[in-house]
Amino acid sequence: MVAFVCFPEAFNVVEAAAVAANPATNMAVDTPSRVYRSSTVTPFFVVQSSCVTPIDVVAIVGTNLRNRDTVRIRVGSSAAAVSGEGTATADYTMPAYSGMKADEKLPMTVLRLPVPVYDKFVRVDVTATGHTDEYVQISRLVIGSAVDNEGIGGGSEIAINDVSVPYTVAGMAYFDQFPLGQSFKASIPYISDRERLQKWQPMLIKAGITKAVLFVPNYKLKANPNLLRDSQTFSVWSVTGAVSWLRNTDYAHDGSLTAAIMEDADPTGAVGNFNQTITIPPDAATYTVSAFVRKSDGPPVRVAIELTGGEGVAAVSTFVAVNPATGATNFAGNSNVLDAGDYWRIWRPLGNSVGHTSARIRIYPAITTPGSPLTGSSAAGVGKNSISGPQIERGGELTDWAPTSAALANDTHYAAMEQNDAVFGFITKSTPVKMNAYDYNSLDLTVTSIVL
């Protein structure tokens, strides 16, 4: 994990498709009301940065994107290099954001490059197919070099600021309402004198109190553990039996409108399921399957994992079943279910000890429960449930769910929640304090935004 501050360096727009009233040049100013607005839901733009130091941060702030939208960022030596006519030095595609987010808070997409890039041309492609706004909007483009630290100290304060002005007329209270803002107050410890003078002080002088910066208190770029494709919209999944679904019609465990309502309406047919098969290496490893099931009075749900393939190797499988009303599972002590707010998260590991080459998840939206405790019978049930966030991951331990797209190349995942506390705003306090440790400082820093 790392905490960093980035001062947005100037840039020139090389190419961008935008509506006339909201050009791409608006992304170079700190005024939230001046925005870039595209003419399509799949826009791109190319800019040339004036950053004199190597670039290691690219971010788009104050967007209207959904978490299932994707953002591709390329950095290269020329406009041609980042537009497919050459090879970009850095090329990352990621979800617009991850983790939970308040509806009132505008998203931001933050990329911290693992290795700084000396090239200055940056291209951003956004894919927001089906967006109801019918356009993509961005308030600010941040390109620059991060000033970082291993982390922040304890006692940080995260506040929502309301600067609305109250007044009274004839004994009645009224308000001149203004947009809410957010502030993050943190102590950044163990900054050496050299780092303070060479890195932090120049950044603080450039920003002052009149120019906004991006402050990310907790960030980590990590590989996506989810081996399934399209774990949000289910568009590349297969259907077996007399089952149906309505995709992207219910709120998922992470607050996005990506849960699928899965239904089995045929009590006479074979039990139906939704499934996906992936390729795995033929080694001795354990794989863990998991999914989120909305709490409801619907029928029990079963989630199974099967390991198949390999010459002369018999298939193996296991499952976990849950009662959506109570969270009761087919395991003593309900050890394979977690309470996830409006959802239950159920999970089950299975070892690949004999060289299987494929893993398959099967989600049964309605099964019967002949007996107690819940047995997970395959007999067909009737009813529907909301399902979200399926995952197959390598290893026997359950980890955070990671969203995935239909294409493997589009899945560079970011630690959940790291962007929710990030603030793009003005430095309202920056006080270096000498620590007891020789030649080390602690920086008391507060960054305050003027809109959420």
Averaged pLDDT: 87
Structural class: mainly beta
Q: Name the overall outline.
A: globular
CATH topology type of the largest domain? Jelly Rolls
Proper CATH architecture of the largest domain: Sandwich
Distance between the termini: 24 Å
Number of strands: 32
The main sheet orders its strands as: 12-1-17-31-32-16-13
Q: Unreliable runs, pLDDT <50, ≥5 residues? A: 413-418
Strand content: over 45%
Instruction: Summarize the biggest pleated sheet.
Output: 7 strands, antiparallel
Describe the structure.
It is a single chain. The chain has about 450 residues and is mainly beta. The protein has 2 domains: about 1-225 and about 415-450, Jelly Rolls, CATH 2.60.120.260; about 240-410, Sandwich (Jelly Rolls). It is about 5% helix and about 45% strand. The strands form 8 sheets. It has a 7-stranded antiparallel sheet with strand order 12-1-17-31-32-16-13, covered by helices on one side. Strands 20-21-29-23-27-26 form a 6-stranded antiparallel sheet, with no helix packed on it. A hairpin with a 7-residue loop joins strand 24 and strand 25. It is globular, with a radius of gyration of 25 Å.
